[in-house]
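Researcher: Let's run the pair from yesterday's discussion. Sequence first, then tokens, for each.
Model: Starting with the first of the pair.
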Amino acid sequence: MGWIVRRFFLPFGTALALGLGGLSAWADAPAQGAGAAGGEGVATQRTVDAARLAWIGLPVVAQDGEKIGRVAEIEPGDGGRIIGIEVEMGGFLGLGGRRIHLGSEDLVREVDRVLVIMDANRIRRLPPTAE
């Protein structure tokens, strides 16, 4: 039975882990020109879509360790770079919460969360975004 695991499941699991680990690195990288897809807009859109997959839903944590909310939307810039995010704060099942905008200069993307270089009280005082 052990040889089955080593022969079939271990290589598949390793390939899957390497493939998923490369997604976030690819999503954070800027678009590299036109590529084989047929145009610069296509490559940029693909990069933005991958960045959305990698960022949206991540918890947002203040520098003092308090969880603020979750990434609701990203603001892509030139070349597929992230220049800001919208954070959904409070509420329950999307009701009663508010969104704030944070620029990339205030953010540090970690593996499983987004760290904001501000304390929680200062973040709460930021004005909500217009919806």
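Model: Moving on to the second of the pair.
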Amino acid sequence: MLTAKFEYKVLSESVLSLPTKFKEVIYMHYYEEMKIQEISQVLSIKINTVKTRLNRGRNILKETYEEATK
């Protein structure tokens, strides 16, 4: 139980520390459960741009999370 709380805290802090352009798409997709097309419309950016930002944001989160949990 304590480990799950720690992991959630690390993940939340990692999301908040992302650059804005990655944080906003990660938040909309995972926390607001918006589809890529919806995010594209809300932010007025291309669908491929949303996909790229999601992938780059995930990669940054993965690296940050792995470092924090070592």
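Researcher: Give me one sentence on the second I can quote.
Model: The first helix runs from residue 2 to 17.
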